[in-house]
Design brief:
about 475 residues, mainly beta, Neuraminidase, four-stranded antiparallel beta sheet, 6 helices, MRJP/yellow-related, secreted
């Protein structure tokens, strides 16, 4: 195994005191120094039992390292936020009567030059529009109304009119290099409550300059399963010669597998592997004081063009896997042959969002329990915490490296667990679109809601560090 995405453990007690007083520790096998400019920790090959015994001190040291570091950091900048999503509804009684804002939770964003696209699947009844947008030039922390994309005519399902040529339920979208929006429509209504497949899943491609549909593909029955739910999509244009000559890799979360679409030939096929299925032991999630259960398979996807690799993770697992794109593009393996899947690493808890920075192939992920954005470079084993916030990072559904914003990372974070358990509080901020912004001055005071440490010790992830 190339490396480990190991334990992220956060404890806030004793941090302020440690930051204020500073500290110098020397112990057998572990030398740690802390001052105002940061901490360096060096561990030699300690035995497992030794690491467990010294875990408390290591945690305090490493947490102080994160909070007291004085280096180029990143802070969370909130672009938009809502207690509940608000729509610019048309003046039609059917939309108004069926709208139930407590059921509306987004799962994906895509950032264009002038718009932010927001996917809102029909997890429950009462969703007016499944694909929406807001303008980018908004005041920070604003709460804009969502506009249906491309228009309300495409969202008849929001008023109870099911038309399979229109948009039904979209989890995520992707922009290509030709400024076109690729939309994967799951065709499933009320997927949490009673899972009603009402239309065949399909791909729709919209030209952003005209907002017109320029391409459509409906998946054939042979690549689907009775419980297929298409939730995420990757565009692979590394060998493309035209706008359409691309491969799409699409996650099927509840009929676990990955669907592959060849844009040049309009062929599609399914690949499956045991690692794409949910693990029952990881189907219970803890976020703060909330716990909920959801037995979901592969959903997190990320792509390294330079390494020709797709990374994936089921929701119900603590593992991260990879598969070469050559294997995906070769079609379904012959009977008896397995997909060449690699176990990349083990995380501290389950998570959904994945991303790869194309500049250096760093993997970004967000473990739920630790309410953080973490980064790991598999080739160098360099590990970082980019952001940490129990308030703002409770359920990160999307991490995007954004070409349309100078390569900044954009995030979609919700309190999905509250929506799922139907315990959402309309007085709280439950939905946020944020981005990580470089901060070019030293951290003089602890920042508990968003902080970063460019380099921190690999053993911070070690699963043997615990209480």
């Amino acid at each position: 195994m190339q490396g480990k995405l190991d334990q992220l453990v956060f404890r806030q007690r004793d941090l302020v005191h440690a930051c204020q007083t500073g500290l110098q520790l020397v112990r057998t096998g572990c030398t740690t120094s802390l001052d105002e400019t940061g901490v360096s920790v060096f561990l030699d090959s300690l035995s497992l039992s030794s690491r467990i015994h010294t875990s408390r001190m290591q945690l305090i040291i490493l947490l102080v390292d994160l909070l007291c570091a004085s280096a180029t950091a990143e802070i969370l900048e909130t672009i938009a936020q809502w207690p509940l999503l608000d729509f610019a509804l048309p003046y039609e009684r059917e939309f108004l009567n069926q709208y139930r804002p407590e059921n509306v939770v987004p799962t994906g964003i895509e950032v264009g030059w002038d718009r932010i696209f927001i996917s809102v699947p029909r997890l429950r009844a009462g969703i007016p529009a499944t694909l929406n947008y807001i303008p980018r030039n908004l005041p920070l922390e604003s709460s804009p109304q969502l506009q249906a994309y491309p228009s309300w005519d495409w969202h008849a399902a929001g008023r109870g009119d099911l038309n399979c040529s229109m948009l039904i339920s979209v989890y995520r979208t992707k922009l290509d290099k030709c400024d076109r929006l690729w939309v994967v429509d799951s065709g499933v209504m009320t997927s949490i409550d009673d899972f009603r497949p009402v239309c065949p899943p399909k791909i729709m491609v919209f030209e952003l300059k005209t907002n017109q549909l320029v391409r459509q593909f409906t998946f054939p029955r042979e690549v689907l399963r009775p419980n297929t739910l298409l939730t995420n999509v990757i565009i692979d244009d590394t060998a493309a010669t035209t706008c359409d000559d691309v491969f799409l890799y699409i996650s099927d979360t509840t009929g676990p597998g990955i669907l592959v679409f060849d844009g040049a030939t309009e062929r599609s096929w399914r690949v499956v592997h045991a690692t794409m299925y949910p693990h029952p032991d990881f189907s219970t999630y803890r976020i703060g004081s909330d716990m909920f259960e959801l037995l979901d398979g592969v959903v997190g996807l990320a792509f390294s063009a330079r390494l020709a690799t797709v990374y994936y993770q089921p929701l119900a697992t603590d593992r991260l896997f990879s598969v070469p794109t050559t294997a995906l593009q070769a079609g379904p393996p012959p009977f008896g042959e397995q997909l060449p899947v690699t176990l990349v690493g083990k995380k501290s808890s389950q998570g959904l969002a994945l991303a790869v920075d194309p500049r250096d192939d760093t993997i970004l992920f967000s473990p739920f329990t630790e309410t953080a954005i973490a980064a790991w470079q598999p080739q160098t084993n360099q590990q970082r915490i980019l952001a940490y916030s129990p308030e703002k990072l409770q359920f990160v559904a999307e991490i995007r490296w954004t070409e349309h914003d100078n390569g900044n990372y954009w995030l979609l974070s919700t309190r999905f667990q509250k929506f799922f358990k139907q315990e959402v509080n309309a007085r709280d901020i439950n939905i946020r679109i944020m981005k990580l912004v470089p901060m070019q001055y030293p951290l003089k005071h602890p920042i508990l809601n968003s902080f970063s440490q460019p380099y921190f010790p690999p053993q911070f992830y070690n699963n043997t560090i615990g209480f």
